[in-house]
Amino acid sequence: MPADTVTGNELAAVLARVERLEQIEAARGVFADYATAVDNHDADALRRLYTARSILDTRVGTFTGTDEIAAFFDRAWAAGPSGKRHFVSNITATWMSSNVVALDAYFFYVGRPSEDSVIGWGAYRCTVDTVGVPTMIDHRITLEMGTTLAAGWSAPVGC
Fold it and tell me: Does residue 159 sit within a domain?
């Protein structure tokens, strides 16, 4: 539609839509920042993605706040060098309310610890606060498969 025919209400609707899209794009960047921080064992970068009220839910427990979440990752990293690299795909972003965006995605990782190469995949679900630097309000990690290349990952008979 020509710019000179746009009403005030239409312009307000377009501006509101642009604001929602900007919030969604800001939230999407959280997954890339997260994967890079985890892969590089960068606790400072990881801390910037969470707040004192953030909740991380994993198969080994639920952790609240920056300190507990950072300690969880410190323990995981201390378990041994793996050279893991995470890949995040199929990101779906849903604008929930002003400055709150829900993200769902799949993840895939490969690694090379000293014993055997590892592979795994699962899903991420998080809610992001996009005010200022985006941070995760909550973050769920669901590991669906984690194995070595030697062990494989074939499904049981009958599945």
Answer: no
CA distances from 107 to 19, 24, 47, 52 (A): 28, 19, 20, 25
Among residues 149, 105, 153, 99, which one has the least CA distance to residue 126? 105
Using CA atoms of 43, 106, 111, 28 in order, give the dihedral in degrees to the nearest 10.
Answer: -40
Quickly count: other Cβ atoms within 10 Å of residue 67's Cβ.
12
| Residue ranges making up the domain that contains 132 | 3-148
Taking the model in full, what pTM does it have?
0.87
Non-local CB neighbours of 78 within 8 Å, separated by 6+ positions:
none
112-158 pLDDT tens trace: 876 788 899 999 999 999 999 999 999 999 999 999 888 888 877 66
> What CATH code is carried by the domain that includes residue 79?
3.10.450.50
